[in-house]
Amino acid sequence: MSSMNKLSATIRSFHSSAARFKKNVEFTAVRYPYLKRGNYSFLSDRHLGFFQSILTPHQVLTDEFNDLSGYNVDWMHSVRGSSRLVLRPKTTEEVGAILQYCNAQNIAVCPQGGNTGLVGGSVPVFDEVIMSLGLMDAVISVDELSGIAIVQAGCVLEKLETILHLNNLTLPLDLGAKGSCQIGGNVATNAGGIRLLRYGNLHGSVLGLTAVLANGQIMDCLSTNKKDNTGYDLKQLFIGSEGTLGVVTQVALHCPSKPTSVQVGFFGINSFDNVLETLRLSKQNLGEILSSCELIDASSLECVTSQLKLKSPVNHFPFYILLETSGSNADHDAEKLNSLLEMLLKNGTIVDGTIAVDSTQATNLWALRERIAEALASEGYVYKYDVSVPIRQFYQLVDVMRARLENLPIRCCGYGHLGDGNLHLNITSQEYSSELLNKIEPFVYDWVSRQRGSVSAEHGLGLKKRDYIEYTKSPTSVHWMRRMKKLFDPNNILNPYKIFPGTLNE
């Protein structure tokens, strides 16, 4: 059977089986029964023929069982789409040709990077065509003098980091998913990570980008100037837009010098007040070399040590802080961190602590933080909430949720980027429970809103949080965001059903 006939047969089977449709799109059918498929074209042999005429065979995937399953499901297996076609362009021009055709034919498109998000933003909701950027993985140039790297959007973060290190540079962001996530997806979601305390977010690190609009027009904003005060800074519109305004294909990134000295400390703390005091004194005494300040609560550490058999270097405490410094003088940096440790122990702010003596110990300490998500997933179903809250209220949400949920979950824990107020609230149960979910949502978002926080710190809104955008953004802001979406994508073909409640086709 030809691939075109095979696609037609797959589509006919898909539309004739309501039960299969419901099984494949759990969140649409169960959690969002009011969400209906937009009035988009269904794929046909004619459409497939066009894509095959502009792409090579390995760039067009139609095999449902061997090719499509990994693209249709997020990494947590919590959201499942029903796309029957994955397109894998290699160039900006190919992206432009695909989008120009899809816009003219009214075909919905779901752009996809490394698919490591938490909110269903990178997988289709219904049968949108998936545009995977994975083949656009070239590091185009690295300039050690200016610290500027130009890279295609599909480049995996870890690959880029390796090349930058060879040029004595480093990335301004570091993520636990760096072995899978792609720089285009990082930009599209304005990813933060563990180094935001030192280097800020991508709105400051991205100097320029190339994006393809819904109609196929290429918007060249790929400036490498660190100063460019000529009109509107249009690139900023695409950073954090989750592929709804255009598809980012190239990025110019400002990369700092690679630190030659990295020190890591791990402290045990008895109270959250002392956690805050540790942060204050760390910022005061470590100054410019402080690069990360991560909080881990007792439940998170217990999970990672019991499930993954990792060892903690300090005894049992309610809270732990992992500090990292990055500098250029190892003796100086080690002295500053040791002096901080001695001060904190002497004044009783911390009870126990250790400093890594080599890179192996530093890696082991970081594993206690970075592998928490893996450990939690081994317990069963995980309800994950990535929110921003004022630092003084950083841990209150965990205490509030524990009291609210009582014995319903296996675990309710919190950890995250204390230095910038980004809390990862995680709740686990043996299997998905609508009763438990209804106790969590929308309460958790209402609580965050009342603290004037953000319902999404660094993963975007996607599908899962789209109904809660006004918990953080004002109605006026949402109105103009919708107007902007309509201007850039009047037919709403780019990542529909994401970010905004309702539909833009109404």
Q: How would you describe this structure to a colleague?
A:
The protein is of the alpha+beta class and 506 residues long. The chain contains 20 helices and 16 strands. The protein has a seven-stranded antiparallel β-sheet with strand order 13-10-12-11-15-16-14, with helices on both faces. A five-stranded antiparallel β-sheet has the order 5-6-9-7-8. α1 packs across α4 (45-54) and α12 runs antiparallel to α14 (330-346). The radius of gyration is 23 Å and the shape is globular. Mean pLDDT is 91; it is low at 1-27.
Task: Give me a quick take on this structure.
Helices cover 37% and strands 19% of the residues. By secondary structure, it is α+β, with helices and mostly antiparallel strands.
What keywords describe this structure?
five-stranded antiparallel sheet, 16 strands, alpha+beta, disordered N terminus, 506 residues, 20 helices, seven-stranded antiparallel sheet
Write the layout of secondary structure elements.
Layout: H1 3-15, H2 18-24, H3 26-31, H4 45-54, E1 60-61, H5 64-72, E2 86-87, H6 92-105, E3 109-112, E4 129-132, E5 139-143, E6 148-152, H7 157-166, H8 183-188, H9 196-199, H10 202-205, E7 206-212, E8 218-221, H11 235-238, E9 247-254, E10 261-269, H12 272-286, E11 290-297, H13 298-308, E12 319-327, H14 330-346, E13 352-355, H15 359-370, H16 372-377, E14 381-388, H17 396-405, E15 411-417, E16 422-429, H18 434-440, H19 443-450, H20 475-488
Parallel strand pairs: 2-4, 3-4
Antiparallel strand pairs: 1-2, 5-6, 6-9, 7-8, 7-9, 10-12, 10-13, 11-12, 11-15, 14-16, 15-16
Helix pairs in contact: 1-4, 12-14
